[in-house]
């Protein structure tokens, strides 16, 4: 594996700093990747599986095949020089051995410097794999990365709270995934400051969260000690809302929207 991808993975890991969080504005194709990468201050990118699937007319929840997911990853990673973390859903495999194989392919063929991996069984946040099985899948992702020779940054998602589960189980899962080889815990369901603080106190590693309007502001997440914030399909929503607004104005013979002159390039 090229030293460049190794260096990107090392950089991606180093960017996850408690109190100075990595902000990743999620992208889904080459043009969104290059546009965000050209934005001052952006240091790394992350895909969002929901967006990657939806722009292809597919549902989230591994609506893509593993081959299609790897191609989609490669389209993004090959468009930019920054490290890219790929939302790899559940690893596109029924068992841990398959997760290991697919993660190795994602690195070697898709150019991923990091991944998200989920612990829910289906498209919904519940049910989840039992803790032992979910941890084994995280360990398998690490094994695949080691086989590829890249220190892949594994952002292991805990869906427990989002799926209506209990706090103690969520924390137990987070710590089990860290023990299995995860670098960061993507802790869903931290909807207020108290939950964020409690997670930071009880999880034995770095915390990643999703930023949502109306919940904990970005500056406060940084002050509390979160290490990464992403926005999932919310950034696709931003783009679609702007497109719909422009379509409404244009259809109504209104003034040309200023953004109609936005200069973009691959």
UniProtKB/TrEMBL annotation:
Keywords: Lyase. One of its GO terms (molecular function) is lyase activity. It holds the Pfam family PEP_mutase. The keyword Metal-binding does not apply. PANTHER family: CARBOXYPHOSPHONOENOLPYRUVATE PHOSPHONOMUTASE-LIKE PROTEIN (AFU_ORTHOLOGUE AFUA_5G07230), PHOSPHOENOLPYRUVATE CARBOXYLASE. This is Isocitrate lyase/phosphoenolpyruvate mutase family protein. It comes from Cryobacterium sinapicolor.
């Amino acid at each position: 594996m090229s030293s460049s991808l190794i260096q990107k993975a090392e950089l991606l890991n180093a960017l996850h700093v408690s109190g100075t969080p990595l902000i990743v504005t999620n992208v889904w194709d080459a043009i969104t990747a290059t546009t965000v990468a050209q934005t001052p201050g952006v240091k790394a990118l992350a895909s969002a599986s929901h967006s990657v699937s939806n722009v292809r007319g597919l549902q989230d929840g591994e609506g893509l095949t593993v081959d299609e997911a790897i191609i989609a990853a490669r389209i993004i990673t090959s468009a930019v020089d920054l490290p890219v973390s790929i939302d790899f859903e559940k690893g596109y495999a029924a068992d841990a051995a398959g997760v290991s194989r697919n993660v190795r392919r994602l690195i070697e063929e898709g150019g991923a410097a990091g991944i998200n991996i989920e612990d829910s069984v289906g498209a919904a946040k519940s049910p989840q794999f039992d803790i032992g099985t979910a941890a084994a899948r995280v360990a398998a992702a690490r094994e695949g990365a080691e086989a590829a020779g890249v220190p892949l940054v594994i952002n292991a998602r805990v869906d427990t709270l989002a799926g209506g589960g209990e706090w103690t189980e969520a924390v137990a899962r987070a710590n089990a995934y860290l023990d299995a080889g995860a670098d960061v815990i993507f802790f869903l369901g931290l909807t207020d400051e108290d939950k964020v603080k409690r997670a930071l106190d009880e999880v034995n590693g770095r915390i990643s969260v999703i930023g949502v309007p109306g919940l904990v502001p970005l500056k406060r997440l940084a002050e509390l000690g979160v290490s990464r914030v992403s926005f999932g399909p919310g950034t696709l929503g931003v783009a679609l809302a702007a497109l719909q607004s422009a379509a409404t104005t244009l259809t109504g013979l209104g003034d040309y929207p200023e953004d109609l002159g936005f200069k973009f390039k691959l």
